[in-house]
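As the work plan foresaw, our protein records have gained a structure token line. A representative record is set out beneath this paragraph:
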Amino acid sequence: MITFKTNLGDIKIKLDFDNAPVTAKNFQQYAEDGFYNGTIFHRVIKGFMAQGGGLASGMDEKTTREPIQNEANNGLSNKRGTLAMARTQDPHSASAQYFINLVDNGFLDFKSEDIQGWGYCVFGEVVEGMEVVDKMTTVETGRFGFHDDVPKDEIIVEETIVE
């Protein structure tokens, strides 16, 4: 279990080492290293997802480890409350950023092993604190540099606890 203590409340996460071993281990290592402490949820879209894990306060990008292999072909679906890895257009570019699905987002699931079909790897789920994630969608968002949907009042992961 991993608990994110945020300025809006606690979010408890259970990782799925059986279906996404590489991704779950990667996320846990970032958590154990304290990497997520001080990061913000920098992209929040009501009715879609809340993204965090790569930017510190002030939208300051953090340096990450090398990207990992996409495990989205693990049979898990981007359902409400699940965590998935954020990535670029390159299917195997995920490193530290993740998002929490606010609704069922099946269109993000694995379809095929090509650029359009890889999808986004689900590797865990929120087991307590989904009301905190829902609360994130009530904050006002706007543009910050090249980024859209940025909360105007920062949502900060103040502490990460790995159990």
